[in-house]
Amino acid sequence: MMNSLAGSPPPIRPPAIRVTALTVLRGGRPVLRELALEVPQGSITGLLGPSGCGKTTLLRAVVGVQKTESGEVEVLGAPAGSARLRDRVGYVTQAPSVYGDLSVAENLRYFAAVLGAPKGDPERVIAETGLTGHEHDLAARLSGGQRARVSLAAALLGRPELLILDEPTVGLDPVLRQDLWQLFRDLADAGRTLLVSSHVMDEASRCDRLLLMREGRLLADDTPAELLRRTGAADVDSAFLALVAGRTEAAA
């Protein structure tokens, strides 16, 4: 008997993140305006836009720590902030969230205990983030790039399916930025989903998909190649400006 499933396309995977009509107010003024977007699983999605456009607010809403006015945010099939997402989502804020008076290993053992992560996880994430040899260094004495790696290592404890990274490469030199992006790519290739915010447009080429924001609105949700094709621009910086100009002309 012929298998009726032979040759059938693979099942469509639901998005890792689905945002619907999300509005956030601050001081009575909109920070996010009716945002709607999806982030596919097993990919790197870049959230790009100038400082103050609402990127961090959106990431906080995805993690479930942002008060919202209206709309819905679904993460891995559950409402954002649900208790069952606790060990499935890793979050790295802009400021390194480590204790300066503890060593790298002590920081990671502490966070592993809080999360209930496996006993060997601190050693695993130290190796994954290139911190081998710095286990006994106090966090306060690390460079900015090394502290960023410790924060990322803490977010990797327990092997979360989704990583939310808020400007993880800000202030880092080009070599460190390249190393971190290679790590992000390795994680995505292993099946993790990453949502990475940045205001550095040249990081766009490292992403599978781009979300371009300005003034709390989504200007584009596309692949880098399709975005360039659609705008006729040579790079994402120029594409962003073309989209802004188009919106301005449409509003005039």
Structure write-up:
The protein is α/β, with parallel strands linked by helices. Helix content is 33%, strand content 24%. α5 links the parallel β7 (162-166) and β8 (193-198). α2 crosses α3 (121-128). The longest helix is centred in the C-terminal third of the chain and has 16 residues, at 174-189. It is globular and about 55 Å long. Mean pLDDT is 89; it is low at 248-252.
Short description:
The protein has helices at residues 55-63, 104-115, 121-128, 144-156, 174-189, 224-231, 236-251; strands spanning 17-26, 29-39, 44-48, 70-75, 78-79, 89-92, 162-166, 193-198, 209-214, 217-222. With 252 residues, the protein is of the alpha/beta class. The protein is globular and about 55 Å long.
Give me some keywords for this one.
single chain, 252 residues, alpha/beta, 7 helices, 10 strands, globular
SSE order: EEEHEEEHHHEHEEEHH
Strand content: 15-25%
Query: Structural class, from helix and strand content?
Result: alpha/beta
Quaternary state of the chains: single chain
| Uncertain residue segments | 248-252
Number of H- or I-type helical stretches: 7
Query: Major sheet: order of its strands?
Result: 6-7-8-3-9-10
Largest sheet, strands/sense/barrel: 6 strands, mixed
